[in-house]
Write a structure and sequence with these properties.
- There is one protein chain.
- By secondary structure, this protein is low in regular secondary structure.
- Helices cover 9% and strands 11% of the residues.
- It has a two-stranded antiparallel ribbon. The chain has a two-stranded antiparallel ribbon with strand order 3-4.
- The radius of gyration is 27 Å and the shape is elongated.
């Protein structure tokens, strides 16, 4: 690790997009599918309700008649 002009340790060279990341902006890397995002804990924008302890499933038929039964195995 090297020291910057003020004597504080740095992890490497100051890259052009590091200033944008420090402001909380995302950076697209051209020619790739890479998107650099700032570090930190991501929180959802809205509060999600708690999931109920007992979760029930309701199955609704999508056909008015019984489906064709599968052919018998030989």
């Amino acid at each position: 690790m090297s020291n910057d002009n003020h004597g504080s340790p740095t992890s490497g060279p100051n890259l052009p997009f590091q200033d944008r990341l420090a402001r909380g902006e995302t950076v697209n890397v051209s020619g790739t599918n890479v998107v650099r995002v700032p570090f930190g804990v991501r929180h959802s924008r809205r509060d999600r309700p708690e999931r109920p302890e007992n979760w029930h499933t309701l199955v609704l038929p999508l056909q008015r008649f019984d489906p064709t039964p599968p052919p018998r195995a030989a």
